[in-house]
Amino acid sequence: MTDVLMIAGSTPKAAVVAAAVDNFRQLGARIHLVGNFKAGEIDGDLGWATVRKVPAGGPASKHAQRKTEAMRPPERLWFHLEHDRTAYAVIRSADLVVALDNRAVYSAWRVSQFTRRPEVCFGLAAGLRALQKRHESGGGQLPEHVPGPLTTATDGLRRRVRTLPADLLRNATGPLALRSRAGARAWRAAVSAPCVPDALRMTAAEQVIEGMWLAGRQSGALSTARAAAGKLTDPAIKARLLDNVAVRAIRNGHTPAGLTEAVTAHLDLADAEYAAGDHAGAAGALLQAMKLAFHRVVHIDQVSSPLAADPAGFTAPFRQSTAASAAVRPKGRTTPAATPPKDRPLRLLVATTSNANFLHLIRSHYEANPDVELRFLDMAEHPGMKRLNGAAQRHVEYRLGGEPLFAHAAEQQLRPYLDWADTVFVDWCVAPAALFTVVDPGETRIIVRLHSYEAFTRWPHMMDFSRIDDMVFVADHIRDLSVAAIPGLAGEHAPRTHVIDNGMDLANFRRTKDPATRFNLGLVGIGQVAKDPLWALQVLKGLRERDERYRLFLVGGDMGRPSNAAKAYARKLEKALKPLVEEGAVVRVGVTDDVPGALEDVGVILSTSVREGCHVGLMEGAASGAVPVVRDWPFFAGGENGAGTLYPAEWIVGTPEAAVERVLSLTESDESWRNAGKLATEHALTTWDWPVVRLDFDRLFFDR
Questions:
Q1: Which H/E stretch holds residue 487?
Q2: Lowest-pLDDT choice from 99-113, 331-345, 688-702
Q3: More confident residue, 112 or 415
């Protein structure tokens, strides 16, 4: 008879254990259960040979408490098993050891080091397979001279551990050990040793990585994860290991150095699940890849972005993934979109969710247009649509061929609007736009506008662009970035693309300015890291070194702090602002409903951003007569299009020093300043004012 030892680090599920125990017994096994679990939840009628909870009895002795105080849970479990006579006797006689959970893996590994060398497995399914193999081979015990697979696999690991100095062995994977270069190097080699089972490698790697984080070796934690992941064969375990390190770096406010590896690991898992027909599993893995790749810390809450640096290269793993490609596979439409009607008004549906900031002029103009019948849809106000927009897992699962009820629900919610409308204009290329592509629009024309932010999110990577007729971008450089980064915007099924400026009512901004205003710099909107107001402070410092009359007016609310990356930037900004505010060099205007009024005090309008679609605050400042000084936005600098093609080239500067020189030259006299401001106003009103831009929208909606 084979003695099977099950080790539990937590209470196992009763139904699962009951079924497994019955299978083990049918194969002639005598089953023992030891570990840390709730004894009352273990069914004693299953025919256990031994059930032993540790620590047994009352509270552990003070000696045991002191010994285990600094231990991690897996090590603490082994300590109690090793010091419990009943449990240890069962352990010594075991032929097959099954670790039921991650906490039990360390104890199973320690058992595998015994002279008797039992076979060790992780999980009930693996244990049953091992027992079945022994049963088919004759049911006898393994010859004592043949080591179990886990024992063989960990020989190299054990040898490496023995070479560590004695002081490191006391806290083998703790910060003290891993703060040492020798200790870190030894453990990195250990977790990447050949022939170690995935479960053991994962458990050891997680402990080593945790120790390295605590020891301040973030780069060491990453290299350890990469080394261990390179030896893992199970795609799920590999993805989990790399994800843990990447997520931790993101939580700390940094872009993970191993981001591509972590994303690719999730995509590999998604591909494997998709090939196996597990749509839910594939959707979960694909969604996690998207969440990592397009996390706001990576692109939004810092002053650089790997996607902006190399759009096609950054999203290449998604193009190479079978699951990601399946999620955006073109389904097309049964009939082409109809041409605008000639015998009745155009039925125009304007849709968004929660954010209608850039729709006011469009709505008011076409509501008053007798050739248009307009309806407005805020999907956030409809519970059914809101639920669907938030159901990302179901959405991706549907895209992969599962979850048919999601498409049915989308059809129910959207069909009445599609049947009514001739044209649907969806503002923001996020969840609502993606939801509209779930259903066949029939003859209804679908137009989606992408501003800037959306190009750095996951939504364009989970929608069917073959069901979108026209994509509208607010600037050429945003179109360039989006087409390079988003697979669905290229190829035969891609929609037509247009560049149309945001509609703005700029005539109301033209103001007469006081002569002293020429020394006042203004920055409108500082609520995001992308605005990079610290760059403006560098400009201010350079100007005040030459003339202390220059001041900076900050218009808008304080910076949002949605992540540790944004918090770190905000802390740095506040520290820099404090002395400048106290000496009167910076004036914090704050939030205001009267931006035209606030701009009366601004003689030079700045755009210091690292990225913009079209900087509305800059355009409003130019319309007010302030002299524009525009940083060559780093996300797009060097490209075919950017700030220098959206604005007149003379507005653009590459460095704070160049900005200082432009300000000084244009504000040298009242005359030079007013002339430059007049030219800026004329350019703004003849280029971006609503009477000009609305002609582009008329052509979009009525010309085919």
A1: none
A2: 99-113
A3: 415
**Which two tokens mark 298?**
């990576």
Order the strands of the 496-499 sheet from edge to edge. Answer: 372-378, 346-352, 423-427, 445-450, 470-473, 496-499
How far apart CA 438 and CA 72 sit, in angstroms, is 48
Say whether pLDDT at 144 is over 70: no
Q: Are 639 and 309 in contact (CB under 8 A)?
A: no
More confident residue, 205 or 628: 628
Q: How many residues does the chain have?
A: 704
pLDDT for the residue numbered 259: 96
Q: What is the pLDDT of residue 67?
A: 74
What is the C-alpha separation between 19 and 623, in angstroms, rounded?
75
The pTM is what? 0.76
Contacts of 571 (CB under 8 A, 6+ apart): none
Provide CB contacts within 8 A for 243, sequence distance 6+. 262, 265, 266, 288, 292
The mean pLDDT value for 153-174 works out to 42
Distance CA 25, CA 127 (A): 12
Please give the DSSP secondary-structure letter assigned to residue 504.
B
pLDDT at 152: 38
pLDDT tens, residue by residue, 227-270: 889 889 899 999 999 999 999 999 999 999 999 999 999 999 99
335-356 as b/e, with b when 16 or more CB fall inside 10 Å?
eebeebeeeeebbbbbbbbeeb
Residue 92, both tokens: 């010594």
| pLDDT at residue 345, rounded to an integer | 97
Through-space distance between the first and last CA atoms of the chain, rounded to whole angstroms = 81
Token look-up 């193009």 returns 319
d(CA 407, CA 72) in angstroms, rounded, equals: 47
d(CA 225, CA 245): 7
* Sequence-distant (≥ 6) Cβ neighbours of residue 132 within 8 angstroms: 27
Q: How far is CA 23 from CA 7, 30, 36, 124, 649, in A?
A: 17, 11, 23, 10, 77
Say how far apart CA 80 and CA 561 lie, in whole Å: 45
Look at the alpha carbons of 308, 309, 311, 315 in this order and tell me if their dihedral is positive or negative: negative
- Cα 577 to the chain's mean position, in Å? 31
Rg (CA), the chain: 32
* Phi, psi values for residue 88, rounded to 5°: -65, -35
Those residues whose C-beta lies under 8 Å from the C-beta of residue 199, and which sit 6 or more positions away, are: 99, 102, 105, 122, 123, 237
Q: For position 111, what pLDDT does the model report? A: 84
Contact call for residues 432 and 457 (beta carbons, < 8 A): no
- The CA–CA distances, whole Å, from 115 to 3, 328, 489 equal 16, 56, 63
> Mean pLDDT in the chain?
89
Rounded Cα gap, residues 256 and 248, in angstroms: 9
Rounded to whole angstroms, how far apart are CA atoms 72 and 175? 12
CA proximity to 149, closest of 200, 92, 89: 200
> Do 300 and 255 touch, CB atoms closer than 8 A?
no
C-alpha dihedral, 392 to 397 to 402 to 405, nearest 10°: 0
**Residue showing tokens 């640096």:** 309
Angle between helices 85-93 and 73-82 (to 10 degrees): 90
Cα 357 from Cα 354, distance rounded (Å): 9
